[in-house]
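Methods: example folding runs. The two proteins below were folded one after another, and each record is reproduced exactly as written to the output file, sequence line first and structure-token line second.
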Amino acid sequence: MELPFNKPLYALTVGEFIQLLQETIEKSVPKFEEQEPKEKEEHFNIEQLRLFLNCSKVTIHNYKKRGLPYYRVGRKLLFKKSEVLEFMRKNIKRLGMGR
């Protein structure tokens, strides 16, 4: 698109201005359809993680001591589902769960 720099701004009609504005926006802002949707990461608090893993809160605290990743938000502890699953997959034998 070639900008009409040879025209003064006040000589543009409203329709020409709107068209120019739309073309400029379309070129500068990526379209939503082209962007891949990001999956929302699932998080657990301690109670949700206890239910997900079917274990006690003490066991979860023991897993934390052994390296289970967690995030503190204020006084709340949060665990990313993907990180929990990766931790369990890597440590299944070391945690005494693999037989």
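Second run, written to the same file directly after the first:
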Amino acid sequence: MVNLSRQVLCLVYAVIAGLALVGTWGNNIQYLNLGFVGANLRFWQDTFANPASRSITVDLFFLMLAATVWMLLEARKLSMKGAWLYVLFAMLIAVSVTFPIFMIHRERTLASRDGSAQGGTLSTWDLIGLGALALVMLVYTLQSLHR
């Protein structure tokens, strides 16, 4: 078992948010020449392009809904302010960027409440699985940016 500090978790979440920002906006930038309204209209129209794009969009919407319920409950439980801003920015920027930032906020709030630096424990197999998953996501992201 590997003990992770809250600082390490915050660093991991920050790296995830940064990579997600590069991956999403590296693709979204193609829409910016259409202006804010035009870019949004075209982006959402393009999510209907084929069954795969529709499937992943529906998948992300329901994942975001579940994450939003959890974030709001967690924010209320921990007296964290600005929970709805994370939801708004998830729609304007990317949920893959704002959710890890919410998690950083949560870890910092928990650390200030209980003074504990302990973030959690993962097994070696958990770390191997997370590493493999991260590698697949990184490869896909890099491929998406070169199309």
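Comment on the second run: The two ends are 40 Å apart (CA to CA).
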